[in-house]
């Protein structure tokens, strides 16, 4: 029996989805046939949280095959985006999470190779920027703690704000800590490093979602709570973030919600205007379908 939820968990099905999204015709919606008289068009929000290497495979050897297919599709997509200024933010996001998506350890780069990989003309200028997919954002997305420390020593702007990337289900205003939180288990060490560097754990994106709202791993929640208080920086406030609705929107694991409840996060009354944000409404719709299917 295969429904929408199980389809999204299967490695081969994820491979099909990723190849479709990364293709040159990625603007064509996917079609879900759930009955003889029921067909839906849908855009797979949060597809970046369903990487092929983490899918379920009946035959384990197929995992490597599908990873190679996804690798080729991702390389082709990056080739299409490279050199096109209007697609620079998407290019840098995909390049940053490259290793996440193909299931390999984070790459370690020199400043020169880092700038070349992310098409950064001037690492010094990019490090000083507060808006956009900056050098700091690229270091976080790629999990390159060494580069993050290098940029911090160069007095880089760690309080950067991301532009809206609707293709990745990211609203405008996401901070460095938001980017680390969405990486799940692969972003915990980066998140902890950012807290050591005194990043604000209570910073919110444009729609009012705090970093806790974007945590994809319980260790990230625990790290935000423990390190922010232990380091003497601003203590994370779980009670006022009203994170549980947003966690539903982004399909966070149950362990994350459990940890937030332990920190007294509110389960009701989101005051930041989530009802006005079409992105979150779309994400909530997808989440409900996943839970009901």
Automatic annotation (TrEMBL):
Q: Which Pfam families match?
A: Ank
Answer yes or no on keyword Plastid: no
Sorted alphabetically, which SMART domains does this protein's record hold? ANK
Q: What keywords appear on the UniProt entry? A: ANK repeat
Q: Which Gene3D superfamilies match?
A: Ankyrin repeat-containing domain
Give the highest taxon in the source lineage. Answer: Eukaryota
- ANK repeats sit at 172-206
Q: Which residues form the signal peptide?
A: none
The name under which this protein is listed is WarA protein
UniProt organism field:
Symbiodinium pilosum (Dinoflagellate)
**Higher taxonomy:** Eukaryota, Sar, Alveolata, Dinophyceae, Suessiales
